[in-house]
Records
---
Amino acid sequence: MDRLNNQPRDTVSDVLQSLSVRSVIYCLSELREPWGFGVEGAQVAKFHLVLTGSCWLELDGYDPAPLAAGELVLLPHGDAHTMRGQPGSPVRRLDHILADSPPGADGKLAYGGRGAATKLLCGGFGLAGPLPDPVRTLLPRLLRFDAVATGLAAWLTPVLALLQEEADGAEPGAQAIFAKVADVFVAQALRRYLNGSQQAGLLAPAPLLDPAIRRTTELMRRQPARQWTITELAGEAGMSRTAFCTRFTKLVGDPPMRHLARVRLSMAAGHLATTSASIRQIARLAGYDSEASLSKAFKREFGIPPGRYRTRALSTRPTATSPA
């Protein structure tokens, strides 16, 4: 049975409308080889959009990620990270770079040597209201939005052309245009990723008032690839195995390991819909020991295998409507 034909309530739209994404552009950077900058961790979510050229993003706990023109990366939890033109390029802290060579009145920053150029649109995004815990904890530390792999290049191409035109020009108001367009990019990336969470039934649960059970659900969502056991989770909750399983099932609606499977599979669905990562790579990220084990669990949850889910996600035409 193809369970995706039974469309659930569109909680993704509800979430995006309630969040009201508001982007702030820090700078439009023209970076020439060799270059590299480090961004300190902060509570403000961050993004980088590659307009031209290529670069690498490095984040503790993740493999270095090569980024090409048209790719967007989000760091929803504001983690510290590094951007480089090439692996091994020298790195300075971004705040030191901005202090020594502040952007001009047009918000443009030039930095690096005399080699190949990369243009980045860098900024942060905030929300008009607080991010609900069930949504916040489902978002990974790094969300990569691969425009080519997800079939969105046709939609992004005119937007990128607009951004490039603004970047090359000197008309006033460019900063405001960048921020408005970034709102759409950010909302679209969140939408793509969270569709799998909706289908796994993880977006709309009532807030958990029990602090011990809330802690264990947050741990599952922050570390889905960890090989959790009931004994470990019960220990985190400060309970016996029996008491923990009984209370968890009553409050969450699923036994602990069943809930963990939903979390892992929603993450896998998100990566399938937003990246070109192989199913084997996604299995590792989601805590499965092989592509076969992920595929079996994924089909049981969503009714179709991962490859078909990805094909269907890529065939869905995106809308360019901002949630503002």
---
Amino acid sequence: MSAVTRVMIVDDHPMVAEGIQSILESYDDLEVVATLSNGRAAIDRAEALLPDVVLMDLNMPEIGGLTATEILLERLPDLRIVILTMHDNPEYISSALSHGAVGYLLKDVPTDEIKEAIDAVMAGETYLCTGAQGSIAPKRLGAREALTEREQTILLQLASGKSNKEVARTLDISVRTVETHRKNIKRKLGISSTAGLTRYAMEHGVLQGTGVRL
């Protein structure tokens, strides 16, 4: 017997959430552990519920899907988050993936595609529905991937001379999480050294206390 995949649904439209729950509960190998209405509730309950997969809407009250995705992955790095939304704008899709989502589904997909996406991300794959794939334009040569707000905050801390341990203590996250963010920042900016990060921060006004300008 295959293991049951624990799924959390986060969507502020009750009819949508209940419809998805009804679909997923028809599969023997899926269990819906919670249906929540915003990102804050997901953050508050995820560590107790320990879902394997989160189906996450983007625009929600209190804490939206992108911020919730980033915070959840800091706390539960093995969690798979699939965005389920009406937005097919390429910027939304790219931003979701840069925040750590491993799947992107539009709400008009056939119901069996939600199950297909869950199976794919549980197998370690990234899943984009057909509509989302068609919305992503090929990356422009030399185009720089944008830093998330959390990465910008960590870049500011690192550029001011703090060690990974000090940043972890300041932001109340693990050293491992800081190291992961640091690697992602270097990858996105095409910078290989700490000195390079500091130089980038100085050149882009990070150390002036006005935030990161990318």
---
Amino acid sequence: MGQEFCDAAWRRGLAVLTRSGAAGGGWDSLPYAARYPALRDAGLLARYFRALEDEVAARATVLRDRVLKQRRDLYFAFRLSQPPADWFTLGLLRGFGLPDRPLILLTPEVWTRDQLALYRARGINLTHAVALMPSSLRARDWSGVRQLVFEESDGFWLAPDEPAGPGAGKRLAHDSLGRLLRRLAR
């Protein structure tokens, strides 16, 4: 991400480490390039990232509550290029999460059952939908897709086809897309 050791993040994370007694004096004067190795060598890297994650979660909770004042029935969805693993995204998910309704996670990741179990163990209530690009699927793929969508994931979403050279940007006709979706539902 590149922001975890900027001055603002460093001050926030260091404040938590200092309050917990993990960090002593002299840490606040460390130059940018020395911050990661110093935390790593002191065994404080995981605590530091957790402090940053907690800060993001607190801010996201405030935002979530403001939004829910306007629309109580709203569900939140996150479209990510890969399953979340960094402090910032995990903090967002924790902050927007509610125990009575899952966050909807949209990724192209195919096998998510074990990952979702890890997130749920951390108290993040997620449901996953896998990305489908209908124009790249052939008729023989549909039985495997059905298993992927209805057994390995909680559903699917239609990802936009990425332009990839001459003739790029060509989309399926609506009737073709409808036919493919009906085939999937069978």
---
Amino acid sequence: MLLQCHVASLGNACLVAQKNELLDRRHKLEARISAYERQVSVIIKLDDDVQWSMQDGKIPALDAQAGEASDDLLDLYPDEWFTPEKERITLPSALAPGEINRLSIKPIAMIEFELRKGQVMDALEGLRLALGEKSLRFQTEVRNANSQRTTHRAWDNIHKFDVDARKYRSTYRQARNALQRLSTDPTYLATLHDITDNDLKVAGDLTDERRFGQRSDTLPWFWRFGDAGNSGGPRMQECMYSDCPCAFPTNPPSIRL
């Protein structure tokens, strides 16, 4: 997914150095995929009748804000150009419904399920940290900017954490889609909701303590998911002394003035 985001960020005007770097990264990824497939072939025995899911997450969906790779980009490359980031990875979640039972790999599917749950937790933790840092930078840098130069630099930092937040959202969506295809724990799946663009916005109600008539006294669901209230780290500790969303407890009280 990281490589796909990198390709999307290149656009159509690639420099020779960027093409060479991309080619090098793809060679390394191809080597890692080949090593993985050799190892997993010992565990998961696939036959000629195996059916793959039409929504196996082979190409994780990228956020529209991050841009999408254009077909014109590939036209600029040599004929031998390859895209290992689009290769199908052998995982239980990539199989069509019923194939897990037919191939008797339910225990392996359970292992992937637990790993995907960890991926969800990591992605949501990263998302909360990125949004919290974005809110903190808005208060400490954007508000205190006293020149055009410092203002541009402050907003560059805001955009950086916004991009990070969208990357974590893409990771979360990929893991959530894989969990839905595994269909192992419906109760847990019911707690995973979509994350919209509005959820990624830092409302002025939460960043400006001087505003009256706040319209938002609740936070998006992922602020209260899992162990969000006990998130650690020096930046989260710093947020405890500010008005950024990450400073709110697991069950936030009303913030109406």
